[in-house]
Specification:
Elements: H1 2-6, E1 11-17, H2 21-31, E2 39-45, H3 53-58, E3 63-67, H4 73-83, E4 89-93, E5 97-99, H5 104-113, E6 117-126, H6 127-131, E7 145-147, E8 153-155, E9 158-159, E10 162-163, E11 183-187, H7 188-193, H8 206-216, E12 220-231, H9 242-259, H10 262-284, H11 287-306, H12 308-320, H13 326-329, H14 337-342
Parallel strand pairs: 1-2, 1-4, 2-3, 6-12
Antiparallel strand pairs: 4-11, 5-12, 6-11, 7-8, 9-10
């Protein structure tokens, strides 16, 4: 057993950090308990100007600090961390996570078993619910990310009313549409080939965009439920934050414009021209914070239009690498997850990819 462990390849873990030293410290303490023979950790300081960060990192042997002169967000911070590492496999990870001691080896094993796999996601459970004695999924990724034909993301183990209890229902590995940035395991060669995360996303949905591009290029994204990571959630931006609303709506529309085929985009974007104002109207019913969120939705839509020339240039690059049609990619997925859930339908992806 020990000899087999020694044959496993090194893995580099990249953790972008902006604020919340206490989260980072608990994350690093948890990672020290990982049962894996060769693991490097790079903490990317997004110009946090936090006193004592260097001293904190110095407490952990083998952990490196990469300080950036400006805040580049999750996407830019991860890209900077990528440039500072060399391992064949990478994990992009939030700093408010804890980890089962055996979380890493199943991911490496799954990636080595299938060279067409570009990204993997562990089962992501809620740390806050665990501390209450509950075994429930975390909102940000749960048992694997999916996407409907209108571009709205959803997850196995997550519903409109909340998250499900982990009762073993999703314990079989499966193809998923996107792997959560809470703990996203990535093959280095593919990440490099596709140019990594899009820096301009800054935060939110950059992992969905990357997963989408991976699949368009013929690779697979899969879940590995035997790997378990716990996530506290909302450590960077609180749920319901207008800033979070802005990035979610802006980046969602931008990735649709970049990644969908012309036919799919005509249908989906036409629908979204009605649904985005409807979302703003819905927020207006939620009081003062709702007004700010409604404004964030409209601001996001305005910026999508202003940034359209840049987005279309990015679209040209994405579509040039396309090896899979939207018909194949969205096979079995609902047109609208909202109506699918209301009718108690559940879908899964079964395609094998082209790689």
């Amino acid at each position: 057993m020990r000899d087999a462990l020694q044959l496993l390849p090194p893995v580099d873990i990249i953790i972008p950090h902006y604020r919340g030293e206490e989260h980072l410290e608990r994350c690093l303490l948890s990672l020290l308990n990982t049962r894996y023979p060769s693991m490097g950790i790079v903490v990317v300081d997004n110009a946090s100007q936090t006193s004592g960060l260097q001293e904190l990192i110095g407490k952990f042997a083998g952990v490196r600090l990469l300080a950036l002169p400006q805040n580049r967000g999750y996407s830019g911070g991860c890209n900077a961390g990528f440039s500072a590492t060399k391992a064949e496999f990478l994990v992009f990870m939030n700093d408010d996570t804890r980890h089962d001691p055996n979380w890493l080896e199943p991911l490496v094993t799954a990636a080595r078993r299938d060279g067409c796999v570009a990204a993997l996601q562990p089962k992501i459970l809620s740390l806050r619910e665990l501390e209450k004695g509950n075994n429930r999924f975390d909102y940000a990724g749960a048992a694997g990310g999916m996407l409907d034909r209108l571009g709205y993301p959803w997850c196995y183990g997550r519903t409109f009313s909340g998250v499900e209890t982990d009762n073993g229902r999703y314990d079989s590995p499966r193809n998923i549409f996107w792997a959560s940035g809470v703990a996203m395991f990535v093959r280095r060669s593919v990440f490099d080939e596709l140019g990594g995360f899009d820096d301009s996303f800054f935060m939110h949905m950059e992992e969905i965009d990357l997963s989408w591009r991976m699949q368009l290029a013929g690779y697979k994204v899969r879940s590995v439920p035997s790997s378990v990571v716990y996530h506290e959630g909302a450590a960077s931006l609180a749920y319901g934050s207008p800033e979070k609303t802005y990035y979610n709506h802006r980046n969602n529309l931008r990735m649709m414009l970049r990644n969908m085929s012309v036919g799919s985009l005509m249908v989906a974007f036409s629908a979204r021209l009605l649904l985005e104002p409807a979302a703003a109207m819905f927020y207006l019913t939620k009081g003062r914070r709702g007004f700010r969120n409604a404004f964030a939705v409209l601001k996001a839509f305005r910026d999508v239009l202003l940034e359209l020339p840049e987005t279309l240039r990015g679209r040209e690059r994405v579509q040039a690498s396309r090896k899979r049609s939207d018909k194949e990619l969205f096979k079995g997925l609902p047109f609208s997850i909202f109506f699918a859930w209301r009718q108690s339908f559940f879908y899964h992806v079964g395609q094998d990819g082209l790689c």
